[in-house]
């Protein structure tokens, strides 16, 4: 039997950050993971270059049943703090798009950095290690594992969400939450491509590969607590539906059974422009649209909406042009689902923040039990926000255990 001050389960982004922080405060820490390979999600993140933070991070970039919960941790460990760590380890980085910071060389360097930070505090490792049971007896957490019994005064659960089961995601955090009586916000795939009924999608399936900048919206954007969102980003047509940053972002807000609305030509009022041009533009409709949209898409849209490709703009009735304008500026689609956890970058929902302290991440009714990272009902937008939450919540718990 081995005895520690702190056991951290899950050696991913949040778990390593938490273990290093606690260990460098002098705590005796054990870090446990069931995987054979360390931090696979960091390794594959950002196309292998890890978009490790976003310098523009604010609480508005996160979804949660309680949008205020993330504020404390995010304000106490900021993107600048993580950048300072990256600089201390002499890792090259660059800004790519809207405040997103990526490693210039490889995501491996972030993993090495976190390993070094753990080593600086003399963190003990158990990996690969499977946990059979967790009990809380006389104020001590007792873990039965396939490498022996581990006891710890504090237990941090950092096993992430359900996305990408193929590289080790499990529902461990949710099972522990349920065992100790914490509430859950229903988990669902987020930052995920959306799919459509195959028959309805058939006319668009052959547009697979086309990408363009669009504006996409879903839900209500009104009131003090809007449930919806709007993003202007790139969209990508796929065989089964839509992907690309615009769709990944909106997928986190999309509620099954509701539509998404896409403006394929943000900034151009298509109906008004076409009606105005009727007198002067002599071209066929397909050629007019191809000035603004990829040709294959312009043709696909015309056919899908029952317009002849060789119809001349001058011959079209205004009502038909308004219909076409709406189909382009307010293309309203009802996804039949998403590509699921197999392709989702993150899991929305998780441990209900009502049962956690926003300062320490400790369960309010279970002394010594902490939940951090993606396991918690705090989900970031695409663009480095999810790692920033992993670092910030990891540090918050690491300073408190
Ligand atoms: P994380 O998933 O990192 O770690 C959980 C750990 O727990 C894993 O090591 C796992 O093996 C372990 N574990 C699970 N079940 C266990 C069990 N039963 N017993 C023991 N151990 C267990 N975010 C971002 O900000 N920028 C980016 O560039 C990207 N890119 C990206 C690409 C792809 C393809 C994906 C899938 C995700 C991203 N993300 C991202 C999201 C980001 O990777 C994610 O939000 C964080 O890794 C979450 O950190 P956690 O430490 O909470 O979980």
Task: Offer a quick outline of the entry.
This protein is α+β, with helices and mostly antiparallel strands and 401 residues long. It has helices at 13-24, 40-44, 71-76, 79-88, 108-120, 172-179, 198-205, 245-251, 270-277, 285-289, 295-304, 318-329, 385-400; strands spanning 2-9, 29-32, 51-54, 62-63, 93-95, 100-103, 124-126, 131-137, 140-145, 148-157, 184-190, 194-195, 211-218, 229-237, 241-243, 260-263, 331-333, 337-338, 346-351, 369-371, 379-380. Strands 1, 2, 7, 8, 9, 10 and 20 form a 7-stranded mixed beta sheet that branches.
Walk me through the structure.
By secondary structure, the chain is an alpha+beta fold. Helices cover 30% and strands 25% of the residues. The protein contains 13 helices and 21 strands. It has helices spanning 13-24, 40-44, 71-76, 79-88, 108-120, 172-179, 198-205, 245-251, 270-277, 285-289, 295-304, 318-329, 385-400; strands at 2-9, 29-32, 51-54, 62-63, 93-95, 100-103, 124-126, 131-137, 140-145, 148-157, 184-190, 194-195, 211-218, 229-237, 241-243, 260-263, 331-333, 337-338, 346-351, 369-371, 379-380. Strand 9 and strand 10 form a beta hairpin. The radius of gyration is 25 Å and the shape is elongated. It starts with a strand and ends with a helix. The model has no long low-confidence stretch (mean pLDDT 96). It binds dihydroflavine-adenine dinucleotide. Dihydroflavine-adenine dinucleotide binds at residues 9-15, 33-35, 39, 41, 44-46, 50-51, 131, 158-160, 163-164, 168-170, 172, 345-346, 373-375, 384-387, 390. GO terms for molecular function: oxidoreductase activity. Keywords: FAD, Flavoprotein, Oxidoreductase. Its EC number is 1.14.13.-.
């Amino acid at each position: 039997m081995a005895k520690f001050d702190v056991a951290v389960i899950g050696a991913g982004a949040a778990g390593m950050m938490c273990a290093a922080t606690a260990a460098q405060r002098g705590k005796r820490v054990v870090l446990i993971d069931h995987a054979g390979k360390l931090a696979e999600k960091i390794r594959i993140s950002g196309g292998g270059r890890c978009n490790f933070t976003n310098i523009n991070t604010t609480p508005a970039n996160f979804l949660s049943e309680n949008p205020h919960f993330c504020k404390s941790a995010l304000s106490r460990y900021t993107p600048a703090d993580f950048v300072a760590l990256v600089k201390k380890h002499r890792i090259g980085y660059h800004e790519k798009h809207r405040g997103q910071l990526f490693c210039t060389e490889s995501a491996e360097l972030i993993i090495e950095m976190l390993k070094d930070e753990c080593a600086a505090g003399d963190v003990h490792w158990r990996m690969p290690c499977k946990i059979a049971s967790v009990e809380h007896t006389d104020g001590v957490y007792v873990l039965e594992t396939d490498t022996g019994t581990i006891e710890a005064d504090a237990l941090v659960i950092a096993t992430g969400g359900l996305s990408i089961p193929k590289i080790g995601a499990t529902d461990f955090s949710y099972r522990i939450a349920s065992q100790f009586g914490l509430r859950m916000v229903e988990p669902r795939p987020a930052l995920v491509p959306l799919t459509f009924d195959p028959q309805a999608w058939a006319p668009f399936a052959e547009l697979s590969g086309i990408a363009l900048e669009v504006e996409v919206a879903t839900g209500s954007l009104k009131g003090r607590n809007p449930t919806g969102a709007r993003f202007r980003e790139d969209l990508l047509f796929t065989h089964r539906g839509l992907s690309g940053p615009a769709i990944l972002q909106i997928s986190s807000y999309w509620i099954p059974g509701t539509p998404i609305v896409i403006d394929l030509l943000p900034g151009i009022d298509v109906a008004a422009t076409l009606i105005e041009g009727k007198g002067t533009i002599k071209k066929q409709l397909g050629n007019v649209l191809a000035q603004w949209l990829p040709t294959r898409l312009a043709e696909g849209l015309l056919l899908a909406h029952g317009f002849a490709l060789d119809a001349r703009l001058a011959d079209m009735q205004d009502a038909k042009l308004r219909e076409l304008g709406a189909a382009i500026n307010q293309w309203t689609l009802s996804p039949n689902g998403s590509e699921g956890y197999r392709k989702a970058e993150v899991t929305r929902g998780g441990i209900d923040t009502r049962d956690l302290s926003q300062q320490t991440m400790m369960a309010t009714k279970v002394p010594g039990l902490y939940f951090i990272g993606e396991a918690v009902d705090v989900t970031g937008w695409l663009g480095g926000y999810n790692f920033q939450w992993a670092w910030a919540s990891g540090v918050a718990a690491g300073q408190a255990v």
